[in-house]
Amino acid sequence: MEDKTLNRHKNISRIGFFMAVKICLFEKYLNFSGRASRAEYWYFRLFVLCVGLLMLSMQLLTGLHHFFNSVNFLINIIFFIPDINVTTRRLHDINKSGLLQLLIWIPFAFLFLPLVFYGNFVKPYIGFTVSIFMTIMLMFIIGVIIYLIILLTRKGTIGDNRFGPNPLMPDESTADM
What is the DSSP letter of 30? Predict the structure, then answer.
């Protein structure tokens, strides 16, 4: 029994930079189920950061601000769904719901809903009260970002969890081959 456990841990599958990008952009583009390892998540994050820095440097070097703003907008649209799904699958890996990433949107609802529903009613109160409110919302956003970073850097659940098998362990069917 110990030999199987040792052999299984020796066969831990590793994921590289290009494999993570391939999985996130092509293989699991619309897949919000299952789990993503830390490597898959952070390599995809690094890829998105590199693409953003490339677009920024091209914009600064060429001076074609409008063109690269448009290209960057299209790239952000393309990366939006994979970004949400890899974050969801990463949260699944630590046995948390992918809906936790929605916490970041709560302050925006509190900021814009009063303006939508009350319109001119809010205008007399703009000033000190709004600046306190905005400060509280900013602190909430920073707190949620720190909380999510802590969660996203945690080691995944060992073995299977309610969201699926461990992404670091190869399938039993392919491990024997």
Answer: T
Cβ atoms of residues 46 and 79 within 8 Å = no
Quote the Cα angle for 27-12-164, to 5°. 55
Reported pTM: 0.76
Residue 75 has which token pair? 């790239």
79, two tokens: 């990366």
CA distance 82 to 71: 18
Strand partners, 164: 161
CB distance 90 to 157 below 8 Å: no
pLDDT digits (tens, 9 = 90+) for 1-26: 444 433 444 444 678 899 989 988 89
Q: Which helix (H) or strand (E) holds 54?
A: helix 38-62
Three-class SS state of 35: coil
